[in-house]
Amino acid sequence: MQDVAAMRHCRCGFLSVLPLFFLILIIGGCAPKERAPIAILHTPEHHVVTGMKLLETGKPLDAEREFNLAKELDPEYSPAFRGLAVVLAYKGDFKSAFDTMSHAQKLARSKQEEALAYVGFMRLYTRQKDEGWLEHVQENFERARKTLEDVPHMADPYLCMGLAYKEACRFSDAAHAFRKALEINKTLTDRAEQQLKLVQKIERAMPGTPIGKKVALLEKVKRVDVAALFIHELKLDAIYKKIRPGLPFKPPVKGAPIPVDVGDHPLGADVQAVVDLGVKGLGVFPDGNFAPNEFVTRASYAIMISDIIATIADDPSLATKYRGHVSPFADVRNDVPCFNAIMVCTTRGIIEPKRRVRQDIFDPGGPVSGADALLAIRRLKEDLGIF
Hints:
Blueprint: H1 2-30, H2 44-56, H3 60-73, H4 78-90, H5 94-106, H6 111-128, H7 133-147, H8 156-167, H9 171-184, H10 189-205, H11 210-216, H12 223-232, H13 236-243, H14 268-277, H15 298-312, H16 339-347, H17 370-384
Helix pairs in contact: 2-3, 2-4, 3-4, 4-5, 4-6, 5-6, 6-7, 6-8, 7-8, 8-9, 9-10, 10-17, 11-17, 12-14, 12-17, 15-16, 15-17
């Protein structure tokens, strides 16, 4: 009898947990299943493509991880070593970079891989900029071009040659190379077209001094860069010296203190010259510093340019000319301090607004590229008849 009672107890216990068991099965069946890894992406080719994209976005360490993964999957995969060589160049280890690129060349399994190794050497020499670097780039360009005689769709050598010419400040040659790259391979349109527009803008700006050409390549200019451009490209000190005897409303700032943070700066003399000229927006801060490495915004650059226009034109009324006017820009109110300066520069075509579908914007907090800074100076000269 005890056995029968025990069996009944077990049976009841089993029946009581049975609904719970089915509930677990139902829930488990509705739960999302774990996705299987996509093996097709775990290939040397995919990791190298990913690594190259990371390099272009300025992430060499992340790119190095991808190239190493490619090398682990195929220890003799030429593109993996080519990518690692470029990463080593980013780190400044050029000896290892050139050795690794030579290894990539030896491992090349096709004409295309061999040509890309030559392009890799072009990149290394362009980054190193050692004596005779441009000649070495040109030599490897010719080797790549000849290797690709049977692969006419590859434009990489021309794109890399254009970048080298740009770094060498040979802007017309760079533009020619970028156009050739676009003709050969439309898949490079975004990058080649962007570079072509940049060098064309620099050509229009016509930088006439070595420092102007160097600043032209900067994506964002700093206060010290603008000071150098005003002195070397615009020659503002000479202009003010010539016209200021007749400008009683804005005399030069004589005996201005030397900013404490530019005493040993290579461009310290240019900073001091600009401080002495009293350009609005480019002076010494209350704490005695100039902040040479602070990036210049589009609004602050407009303030500087409009102040120079008012000084040279001997027209102090320009400082309030547009007060109360309706702002044509969606992102600039007419009551902000920089509004008048922005209007002075845009109405004269010295600084261009940015186009939107419905309304223009100015992007007052946006950076100023070296090419844009130079182009504004060029237009300023034309506007004021300064040659």
